[in-house]
Specification:
Structural class: alpha/beta
InterPro entries: FUR (IPR002481), Fur_C (IPR043135), WH-like_DNA-bd_sf (IPR036388), WH_DNA-bd_sf (IPR036390)
CATH class: Mainly Alpha
GO molecular function, one term: transcription cis-regulatory region binding
Helix content: 25-40%
Distance between the termini: 24 Å
Strand order of the largest sheet: 1-6-4-5
Binding site for Zn(2+): 113, 116, 152, 155
Family: Belongs to the Fur family.
Number of helices: 5
Bound molecules: zinc ion
Cofactor: Zn(2+); Mn(2+); Fe(2+)
């Protein structure tokens, strides 16, 4: 489901609530999912929690290697895989063939800038529920996501 809307993004409002995740709370969250807390899992998860730009694996690697130069693509992939399996991280596919990652697990939609590619979360209460009554009756809808295309405030 895609709509082309030129939308002035209210960047401030769309930014996620200020995120102050302490090392203790990140460790506790990982443990609460039954995960062993490894430096890699910790680094990948705290990196994703600290940003809302839906990075690719390469972008996570680039940032982690600035202060944690022991990461490789393979270790980041495997950390992401584990974090996805326990529901702490989701894969977001907004462009063909590009996997991005998101630690926001609340139901939300996405805005993607057609010019610079920036991606922002749109809280689901910002978009009215769609009327899905006219779908083929045999289809049982469980969830849906909207991708809004347009230009961001920097473009
Ligand atoms: Zn843009
Ligand atoms: Zn998102």
């Amino acid at each position: 489901m895609q709509r082309n809307i030129k939308m002035q993004v209210e960047a401030k409002k769309l930014k996620r609530k200020s995120m102050n995740y302490s090392a203790e709370s990140i460790t506790a969250t990982l443990k609460s999912k039954g995960l062993r807390v490894t430096p890699q899992r910790f680094a990948v998860y705290s990196n994703l929690l600290s940003r809302s730009d839906h990075p690719t694996v390469e972008q996570i690697l680039e940032e982690l290697n600035q202060n944690f130069p022991i990461s490789s693509l393979a270790t980041i992939y495997s950390s992401l895989q584990v974090l996805r399996e326990v529901g702490l991280v989701q894969e977001v596919l907004l462009e063909e063939g590009v996997s991005r990652y998101d630690a926001n697990m609340e139901k939300h939609h996405h805005f993607r800038c057609s010019s610079c590619g920036a991606i922002e979360d749109i809280p689901s209460d910002r978009i009215e529920d769609l009327n899905l009554d006219k779908l083929r009756p045999d289809l049982k809808v469980t969830t849906y996501e909207i991708i809004v295309h347009g230009l961001c405030d920097r473009c």
